[in-house]
Amino acid sequence: MMGGSYTQTRDMDGYSGMHGAMNGMTMGLEGKTGDALDKAFLDGMIIHHEGAVEMAQTLLKGTKRPELIKLGNDIITAQTGEIQMMKDWRSNWFAQ
Hints:
The chain has four helices and no strands.
């Protein structure tokens, strides 16, 4: 799979590597169908969601804006649950 973790794709200013990471994840789906597509999608989305959680955790360490604190906490809550759901599916469907 192309891409890698969010941390591995960041560049010097912090977050502009995200666009390249997403492009790499999309390219990893091209030409796949069935189980290969499903597994590649889950693998890519797990990495993507882990990156979002990491970004939100970083935000919460430095922001004082209540709106961003709420957003960061909401992202962590929602995407942590989605990560677990996707990992469970991957484990059940692909015996990982």
